[in-house]
Structures are given as C-alpha cells and as structure tokens.
Amino acid sequence: MEWLIIMLLLVSLILFSCSFLLKNKDQTKNELEQLSLNMMGEVYHIKKRLQLLEEELLTTVKPNPPVSRSKTNKELVNEAYKYFQQNMSVHEIAAAMQLKEDEVKYLLASLQ
After folding, report:
1. Could you report the per-residue pLDDT of 40-73, keeping only the tens digit for each?
2. Same domain assignment for residues 39 and 80
3. What's the pTM value of the predicted model, to 2 decimals?
4. In this structure, are residues 88 and 97 in contact, taking their beta carbons and an 8 Å threshold?
C-alpha cells in the first residue's frame, strides 16, 4: 500500500513536470510562429520601401537634353576671345559660356 502511494506520487510529479515542459514547447512554438510572421512582415515592408526608392531614383534621374547652340562658330570664337582679353582663365570662360574646357581651348586656338 505504501509502495502504491509512493508510485502514484512519483507518477503525479513526473506528469506535473511534463505538463510544464509541454506548455513551454507550445509556447515556444507559438513564439516562433509569431517571430516568423513579424519577420515576413518586416521583409515585405522593406521590399516595398526599396521598390519606392528605386522608382523615385528612376524618375529623378533623367538625362539632360542637349543644349542647342544658336551661335555660329565665329560668334563663339569672338565671345571666347572677349573673355580671354578680360584675363579670364579657360575654366572661367568655359563656365561663363557653358562649354567644356576643351571646346574653349579649341575656340581660342582657332584665333591663330
């Protein structure tokens, strides 16, 4: 009889401890599922933000239209020479005339 009571107490303690472990497994499983759902949601939001940024970048980066020059070559040479007489550097002349430095050098060289 004593053995039976001791055995029943041991079985009850084992079952009691198993119930805590099973709850922890279920709780851990639920936490893992919740974490997985949160991560999927964050990945979705990051992909959306990235897509919006890519679209913004593509819409803001447009090549500049070529500048139409209505001046003749002779007028450009005269204008470059006028700036050169004012002791402006090639870089400053290029900025003032909205030309490349090589183009300004070509215009000034064509004076000779």
Report:
1. 999 999 999 999 998 888 887 555 555 555 678 8
2. no
3. 0.38
4. no
DSSP codes of every residue in 31-61: HHHHHHHHHHHHHHHHHHHHHHHHHHHHHH-
Same domain, 3 and 53: yes
Q: Cα–Cα distance between 56 and 33 in angstroms, integer?
A: 35
The first and second tokens of residue 81, run together, are: 């020479």
CA distance 19 to 27: 12
Q: Compute the average pLDDT of residues 13-40.
A: 82
80 lies in the same domain as 58: no
- Tell the residue number behind the tokens 């029943």, with chain if given: 8
Q: Domain count of the chain? A: 2
Domain of residue 14 covers 1-65
Q: Which residues neighbour 91 within 8 Å (Cβ) at sequence distance 6 or greater?
A: 101
Instruction: Provide the token pair at 112.
Output: 């000779």
Question: What 3-state DSSP class applies to 15?
Answer: helix
Token pair for 25: 């497994």
Q: Which of 49, 65, 81 is the last residue of a domain?
A: 65
Amino acid at the residue 75: E
